[in-house]
């Protein structure tokens, strides 16, 4: 699994003009699921994201996690994180997981984040054309890969 994590002051995702997920201060996670990803990838990635100390303490240091600041989480599926652009100019998505199991993994990611105490977890709509509107706070943007490739 791959995730692009952005610390946000606000974020919302719309489908056909309708807001389907919205958060205040917290993290926006663009989540890609790859072929072969399984429970072990969720076991690694969910606590890692929820526990990331990317929020500032009273001294201005990034020492606090979502729970420490009452932060919210918006999880948006994004298979294009598995786009391979090394050959030619058209990305190949053959390493992305097929839709049905990938959707379950994205749902499980959000469910597990809730079980770890995140106060509000919102989700995008799997497989839909989505418009994401966010204010990246910092800016703070991090990349995670459950296979630890980067």
Q: What does this protein structure show overall?
A:
The protein has three helices and eight strands; from the N terminus they run βββαββαβαββ. Strands 1, 2, 3, 6, 7 and 8 form a six-stranded mixed β-sheet that branches. Strands 4-5 form a two-stranded antiparallel ribbon. It has helices at 39-51, 66-69, 99-115, and strands at 2-15, 18-23, 26-32, 55-56, 62-64, 72-77, 121-123, 131-145. It has a single domain (2-145), classed as D-tyrosyl-tRNA(Tyr) deacylase (D-tyrosyl-trna(Tyr) Deacylase, Chain: A, 3-Layer(bba) Sandwich). The model has no long low-confidence stretch (mean pLDDT 97). It starts with a strand and ends in a 5-residue tail after the last strand. α1 (39-51) packs across α3. The longest helix has 17 residues, at 99-115. The protein has 150 residues and is of the alpha/beta class.
The structural domain count equals 1
Percent helix range: 10-25%
Q: Cα-atom Rg, whole angstroms?
A: 15 Å
The SSE order reads: EEEHEEHEHEE
How far apart are the first and last residues' alpha carbons, in Å?
12 Å
At the fold tier of CATH, the topology name is D-tyrosyl-trna(Tyr) Deacylase, Chain: A
Q: What is the CATH C level class, in words?
A: Alpha Beta
How many DSSP-defined strands?
A: 8
Q: Outline the low-pLDDT stretches.
A: none
């Amino acid at each position: 699994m791959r995730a692009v994590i952005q610390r946000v002051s606000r974020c919302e995702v719309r489908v056909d003009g309708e807001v389907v997920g919205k958060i205040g201060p917290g993290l926006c996670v663009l989540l890609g699921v790859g072929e072969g990803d399984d429970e072990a990838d969720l076991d690694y990635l969910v606590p890692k994201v929820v526990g990331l100390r990317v929020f500032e303490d009273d001294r201005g240091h990034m020492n606090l996690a979502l729970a420490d600041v009452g932060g919210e989480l918006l999880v948006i599926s994004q298979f294009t994180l598995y786009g391979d652009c090394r050959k030619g100019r058209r990305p190949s998505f053959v390493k992305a997981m097929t839709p049905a199991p990938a959707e379950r993994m994205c749902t499980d990611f959000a469910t597990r984040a809730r079980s770890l105490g995140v106060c509000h977890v919102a989700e995008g709509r799997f497989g839909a054309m989505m418009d994401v509107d966010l204010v990246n706070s910092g800016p703070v943007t991090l990349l995670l890969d459950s296979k630890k490739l980067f």
